[in-house]
Input
Amino acid sequence: MIFMAPHSQKDQNYEPIDQILQYELKEYCNEHNHPLNYKAKSQFSKQILDEIDLLKGQIKTLVDLQNVINTKFGTNFTYAQIQYQVNHLLEQNFGHPTEDATNFVEMRKDVVQNDGHFSFELGDDGKLEKALFISAAMLMYSRYFLDAVLIDATYGRNRFNMPLINIVGIDNFGRTIMLGFALLNDGTSISYQWLFKKSKFVWEKEPGFIITDECEAMISGNFMRG
Output
């Protein structure tokens, strides 16, 4: 069996000359020299993809989704494989996330014109990194109901794979009310400091109490440092 392969070589004038090199296969061994790992070759069947599509908005983190899928179907999918399939399904259902990010940022004019607040920050590559949205109604609530503020992150369970931060208050009837929400490019204390600084600027005062989970980055980025 003869294999033909193109090859480029330069002559004395350094002009490329296309040549053909011939390779002859003399021996073939139909055995693997390493142990096979069939679990690493797990395939995404339609049933698995349907399950991911169903659960992607219900399970909090991709790690949890990875564990659920691998446990249910006896597979060994990596985090990156699950993340790719989730992003692919979101793009199939809703279009490319870049378009949504652009439309989201363009909402700023309407929000500000309607007496709300919209802050955002772009990275060096022009991608959305941080955003804080406070509508006019949310801003009105903040004038009266900042005695206790609950801040909770849903991590990357959205199509931007960015932590979604819910800022919630309690009104005079004991009902929860939205005071704002934010998207951050990561969950570091620096990002939370950005969020808290912007929130304090809009509210023009500090909340009486801040209630969070045990997220260390959120705690270290508290309002006292903002």
Remarks:
- Confidence is low (pLDDT under 50) at residues 1-12, 36-41.
- Residues 163 and 186 are 7 Å apart (CA to CA).
- Residues 43-94 form one domain.
- The beta strands are 2-10, 16-24, 117-122, 128-134, 148-153, 164-170, 176-184, 209-211.
